[in-house]
Design brief:
- This protein has two domains: 132 residues, Aspartate Aminotransferase, domain 1 (Alpha-Beta Complex); 228 residues, 3-Layer(aba) Sandwich (Aspartate Aminotransferase, domain 2).
- Helices cover 39% and strands 15% of the residues.
- The protein is built from 15 helices and 15 strands.
- It has a seven-stranded mixed β-sheet, with helices on both faces.
Length: 381
């Protein structure tokens, strides 16, 4: 259900998790090197220093922030607070929402995104979602921007329209912006600046991916103070460790870190997309640090032409030049074949709305990306 399972596989290059490719900020490494004293202190229950620093960086107030042990803990806490009878999800989307909803017995209603539209949140899809909200009157809607696994952002205008409907149907909208800061376009697309305008809006973010620190669990929820107080009652005491709080403050101090990361991600993402297409993959345009692509089990590209069902042969070389034919590549699937080369990618066939042949890869450093592309070329050609 998730990437990053390096503990049961022999993996040298892990493209299955979407963390910042430039690695931990130096300031966070320094905190970790001097973490002995922190381990002997109880954490601040209110995460005061961290919330003040976050508020200063984000242009909001500290009381609008609730910190948690990663975004997943906060997702579960929201579900426990609301205990909704019904909840709406896009499909495909992050599996953690449904896991949390199932834990509280919620009926999950999926509203599929269209493959013909590249799984993008279009104006037409927004109207479709608005209609379902009015019909179902769910207590909760999860929406991700940029979406996971597609990497596509949602226009703020579409989100505002949804929020107008949600206010009328008493539906909370949890907007997951965990990958927003890696797009380089947060100023234009984030809804943080509008948090005061909507009673039912909650925004979720995490340090995990943004600052390449998944082993230091740290996330935060932004919303109205009264709502956050109710969510906090679902959390255990001392849930955010002293190390996590100190690491968070340190990460936010490096103002150039995200600028460097976004420049790298943007250039490498474009290059990887072009190279994957040369290998015959159907690449779905992304705005962030991962790419969704399709290659069927016989090494052929999925056609997006609505009037034609034809598929293209994957390899661009003459058939006699290929080291391994499409049928051989299909014997165990692309993920399994790459694992033999100690490279892990995310098989997305378990996402509702996707099927066998959909994969997601992280955008990493240039040399690592080259390793992946060369390995795929050996398999698919």
């Amino acid at each position: 259900m998730h990437g990053g399972d390096i503990y049961r596989q022999q993996v040298t290059y892990d493209f299955s998790v979407n963390i910042n490719p430039i690695g931990l900020p130096d300031a966070v490494r320094q905190v970790m090197e001097n973490s002995g004293d922190l381990a002997m202190q109880y954490p601040d229950l209110q995460c005061q220093k961290l919330r003040i620093k976050l508020a200063d960086c984000l242009g909001i107030r500290p009381e609008q922030i609730l910190c948690g042990n990663g975004a997943s803990e906060l997702i579960l806490a929201v579900c426990h607070m609301l205990r909704p009878k019904k909840a709406l999800l896009s499909a495909p989307c992050f599996s953690g929402y449904e896991t949390a909803l199932q834990a509280v017995g919620t009926e999950v209603i999926r509203v599929p995104l269209s493959e013909a539209d590249g799984f993008a949140f279009t104006e037409e899809y927004g109207r479709k979602l608005e209609t379902r909200i009015k019909e179902e009157k769910p207590e909760l809607l999860f929406l991700t921007t940029p979406n996971n696994p597609t990497g596509k952002m949602t226009e703020p205008a579409y989100i505002r329209r949804l929020l107008t409907v949600c206010e009328k149907t008493d539906t909370y909208l949890v907007l997951d912006e965990c990958f927003m800061e890696l797009t380089g376009q947060a100023a234009q697309y984030s809804m943080l600046r509008e948090i005061d305008s909507y009673e039912k809006l909650l925004i979720l973010r995490a340090f995990t991916k943004t600052f390449a620190m998944p082993g230091i669990r740290l996330g935060y929820l932004v919303g109205k103070q009264a709502v956050l107080s109710s969510v906090q009652k679902q959390l255990p005491e001392w849930n955010v460790s002293t190390l996590a709080q100190a690491a968070g403050v340190a990460a936010l101090a490096d103002t150039r870190y995200l600028e460097r990361a976004c420049r790298l991600i943007g250039s490498e993402r474009e290059r990887m997309g072009r190279e994957l297409e040369k290998l015959g993959c159907k690449v779905y345009p992304s705005d962030t640090n991962y790419i969704l692509f399709y290659v069927n089990q016989y090494g052929r590209q999925k056609s997006t032409d609505r009037n034609h069902g034809s598929e293209k042969r994957l390899c661009k070389k003459p058939a006699t030049d290929c080291q391994a034919g499409p049928e051989q590549a299909a014997e165990a699937g692309l993920k399994a074949r790459l694992l033999r080369k100690q490279i892990m990618i995310r098989d997305c066939s378990d996402y509702p709305g996707l099927t066998d042949g959909y994969y997601r890869v992280a955008v990493k450093l240039s040399e690592e990306n080259r390793m992946l592309l060369d390995a795929m070329a050996e398999i698919l050609c």
